[in-house]
Amino acid sequence: KMAAATAGGAGAAAALWSEVNRCGQNGDFARALKSVNKILQISKDDVTALQCKVVCLIQNGNFKEALSVINTHTKVLTSDVIAFEKAYCEYRLNRIENALKTIQSASQQTDKLKELYGQVLYRLERYDDCLAAYRDLIRNSQDEYEEERKTNLSAVVAAQSTWEKVMPEDLGLREATYELCYNSACALIGQGKLNEAMKKLQKAEELCRQSLSEDSDVTEEDIEAELAIIHGQMAYIMQLQGRTEDALQLYNQIIKLKPTDVGLLAVIANNIITINKDQNVFDSKKKVKLTNAEGVEHKLSKKQLQAIEFNKALLAMYTNQADQCRKLSASLQSQSPEHLLPVLIQAAQLCREKQHAKAVALLQDFADQHPASAAEIKLTMAQLKIAQGSVTKACMILRSIEELQHKPGMVSALVTMYSHEEDIDSAIEVFTQAIQWYQQFQASQTRGANPKSPVHLSLVREAANFKLKHGRKKEAISDLEELWKQNPKDVHTLAQLISAYSLVDPEKAKVLSKHLPSSDTMSLKVDVDALENSHGASYVRKKAGKLTGDNQQKEQGQGDVKKKKKKKKGKLPKNYDPKVTPDPERWLPMRERSYYRGRKKGKKKDQVGKGTQGSTTAGSSELDASRTASSPPTSPRPGSAAAVSATSNVIPPRHQKPAGAPATKKKQQQKKKKGAKGGW
């Protein structure tokens, strides 16, 4: 019975194996897996059946289950038997380090393992080793996958150029496919050759359309989806070139297509956020969600992921999320302690909170811990000090940057800042130290000889000009003499030297002026007529015309006579009558004229009978015949106009009568009115 049962089991297993073989050839791995499981029920430790089960699971995308089968049958499925399948499952599950160990522990390096090894090295960003692996594969392989290997090789070169700034070598690859053209364009972008890269991308787009249009099943939407990565790189070039509007439009077109590549979407969203900066933050908040999609961390390089995290921290700062900004920047600093940007973000956030002292202290601590980045940190610290108004402290920080203190730009900045603070001595000291540094540098480069570099001579000249401007004439003369000794034919320096000596030692200036070239040698061939008639000339000589005899006599007679400016005739009043003599008092104000009788409020007949009983009107004295010029004057009443004139016998100059005015002036009596001020 046992023999019969064994024979029956063997027959069933043979039928199952036949089914597995047929399903495998047809690509029906789900059905093949069922047959393999039946075989394992008959023989649970069958090595071939276990291998087939792992392969079926991998083909169906069940990498975790396949890896579980391998790990639970380690005694049967040794590394020599199943090394490739195990490493591939680990690679697809993004356990890249484990995959590398599995490949390296394999006793025999098959071609399949070498191919996978190249992919693992690329994901680990070990580009030099990856390049060597693919070169070895291309050299020692001859099959239908040669084009794919060359594409991978060009991708490695592009990554080196982009992330490691390595000058790519010419691999001699024929760019017959759009993938090769795309990778070549990426390498050119890494070198900064943006125009050439754009042309390569345009060629890649053309090749992609040609390749996909040959397949009748491919729709226009499928083609646009495949072109999305090429268009994304085109938009990136536009952004680098400053064409932000065009780049933004293309980025948004790609997002509308809803591509399945989460890595592409994350990069595009990040680039849009960098265009928005501190503007349009609502749009940036929506776009940042695309960078948080599942699986993004496995699609992008470390530097791409780091850039996205930096932009998240900056966006949090721009949207006044202080705690979130501090959290993100602290996390970035812990991941990359030597990186400068997280510290700068933290300092910027502190400045937004008006905590400048803490920001400076934070930057100082980082500069002490990382001397390699001290220069950039100190520049930021100086900027903060200037923002606080502490210009002198900012100068001290800038002068502590040894590798920059002799640079012309730094010297110029320091001199400007010291001049603003009216610290001329410190400004001159900056010039002196920079000049001495260049002298020592030139001496070390030329083995004791002392030729002057253009930068050194330029600094000496600027120092001399600065000293002359601020009254340090003797020091300026010393600098100018040094310049003149270096180049005795320099007329400009000699002229400056003579000008400086003329302020201190005129005799010396006269002696030096003999070294100036004569006016004949310095004459320039200039067409005066053309210069005067040129556009923009301030004076244009009038063309000479024929003069008549009278005009000639006039011009000859006027040779020594200075021309007088013609006075403009004054405008006469509209009612001017030449037959009537003008009023001699017309220049005086109306109140001061002799015939002014005060403001009339009505006819005199209307004033009769008005006022209190027994009072007289202002004009009653004029109607009284007894009060004439021949009558003796009566005693003035208190408060009357006569009292005012009696107290002031001397008439002020402005009140004097002009010549030809009437001899007598009628007195004006003061009007009294209840509630009103008295006037006369």
TrEMBL record:
GO MF term set: 7S RNA binding; ribosome binding
Intracellular or extracellular location(s): Cytoplasm; Endoplasmic reticulum
Pfam families named among the record's database cross-references: SRP72, SRP_TPR_like, TPR_8
Gene Ontology BP term (one): SRP-dependent cotranslational protein targeting to membrane
Coiled coil: 96-151
Ranges annotated as biased composition (Basic residues): 562-572, 664-680
Feature: compositional bias, Low complexity: 626-643
Record SMART domains: TPR
Residue span(s) of domain Signal recognition particle SRP72 subunit RNA-binding: 542-598
TPR repeats: 228-261
Compositional bias per record (Basic and acidic residues), positions renumbered to this chain: 574-595
Residue span of region Disordered: 537-680
Family: Belongs to the SRP72 family.
UniProt function note: Component of the signal recognition particle (SRP) complex, a ribonucleoprotein complex that mediates the cotranslational targeting of secretory and membrane proteins to the endoplasmic reticulum (ER). The SRP complex interacts with the signal sequence in nascent secretory and membrane proteins and directs them to the membrane of the ER. The SRP complex targets the ribosome-nascent chain complex to the SRP receptor (SR), which is anchored in the ER, where SR compaction and GTPase rearrangement drive cotranslational protein translocation into the ER.
PANTHER family hit by this protein: SIGNAL RECOGNITION PARTICLE 72, SIGNAL RECOGNITION PARTICLE SUBUNIT SRP72
Name this protein carries in UniProt: Signal recognition particle subunit SRP72
Organism encoding this protein: Indicator maculatus
